[in-house]
Design goal:
Distance between the termini: 29 Å
Structural class: alpha/beta
CATH architecture: Alpha-Beta Complex
CATH topology: Inosine-uridine Nucleoside N-ribohydrolase, Chain A
Helix content: 25-40%
CATH class: Alpha Beta
Largest sheet: 9 strands, mixed
Strand content: 15-25%
Radius of gyration: 18 Å
Number of strands: 11
Oligomer: single chain
Order of helices and strands: EHEHEHEHEHHEHEHHEHEEEH
Length: 318
């Protein structure tokens, strides 16, 4: 059964991989991509998504979104690879035209056009929060949100907070309280699937521009990995896990929990407070605990293979 999704992201190399996976996966129907400030400034993330859509041969609309968070100052990633992939400007790569609608409007329009739509998020929650504020009734039409965000333990950007949550905690709190079924992939779960040399070689072995580009993205991600004391020994695959899990929930073990976002703590602002015991409130999320590594890697490669084969078929038909 095909799952219809909208992907809200902030490309970013791993977000770009997520777009390619969403385009190529046999069990996903990608209806739109929306972007906002996060890994880079908003105009850059939108252009990077447009580049990725062109590389992947996709025809779905790409809409630029929020330039700043709802309340806090804008953050930009501090560790970048300015020699390859999508961290630097890429005038050598073609890009599809952007849809003129703001991302929040695109989300509302997509949900209204496709009741039961799954929203996949791999960046800050600003666009989705704005859409829910603009038209609260869409919360009844979204079948699920699948997000790569948060952590049940230590943070990744601060001692307490993970990057996607910290970029716009107020927006994350709106999404957490929206009453929409929510699958959350915290940092610890995402860290179970890493990028190693074998995965890079297998990715680059897929035919066509998408495979070559995906390999470049993976190599760039590895080059920026700065493991901390409690980090995994490898760069996590990260953002592609969200569309992969939307396509096949069996890829990860999940448990119910209550998720709240810390908005007032001096040292804990942006922390995802994940209460597995649900001491003070009922569950509002399914929390991924870990992935079937082999099945996830195979699904990732299969999506890229299919995307490459689609591009080859299109060229032969033209």
């Amino acid at each position: 059964m095909t799952t219809r999704i909208l992907l809200d992201c902030d490309p970013g190399n791993d977000d770009a991989l997520g777009i390619l996976v969403a385009l190529g996966h046999a069990d996903l129907d990608l209806v739109a991509v929306t972007t906002g400030a996060g890994h880079l400034a908003a105009e850059r993330t939108a252009h990077n998504a447009a580049i990725t859509m062109a590389v992947g041969g996709g025809t779905v609309p790409v809409a630029a979104g929020a330039m700043v968070p709802l309340v806090r100052e804008r953050m930009i990633a501090g560790v970048l690879d300015l020699t390859s992939a999508l961290d630097p400007e890429r005038p050598d790569l073609a890009a599809v035209p952007l849809d003129p609608r703001p991302a929040s409007d695109m989300i509302v329009d997509s949900v209204r056009s496709h009741p039961g739509l799954v929203i996949v998020t791999t960046g800050p929650f600003t666009n989705l929060a704005l859409a829910l504020r603009r038209d609260p009734a869409i919360s009844k039409e979204i079948s699920r949100i699948v997000s790569l965000a948060g952590a049940w333990g230590l943070g990744t950007k601060t001692a307490a907070a993970e990057w996607n949550m910290l970029c716009d905690p107020e927006a994350a709190a709106i999404v957490a309280g929206a009453g929409i079924p929510w699958t959350l992939i915290p940092y610890e779960a995402a860290s179970t699937v890493g990028i190693d040399s074998e995965l890079i070689v297998q990715t680059e072995a897929t035919d066509g521009a998408a495979g070559v580009f995906a390999g470049e993205l993976l190599r760039s991600l590895v080059s920026t990995f700065r493991p901390g004391r409690f980090s995994p020994p490898f760069m996590p695959l990260n953002d592609p896990l969200a569309p992969l899990l939307a396509a096949n929930p069996a890829l990860a073990e999940t448990v119910l929990a209550h998720v709240a976002i810390e908005l007032a703590g001096r040292h804990t602002y942006g922390r995802s407070v994940i209460d597995f015991a649900m001491r003070f409130a009922p569950a509002n999320a399914d929390i991924a605990l870990g992935f079937d590594i082999a099945a996830t890697r195979n699904a990732f490669l299969a999506a890229l293979e299919r995307l490459s084969s689609q591009a080859t078929s299109t060229k032969e038909t033209a």
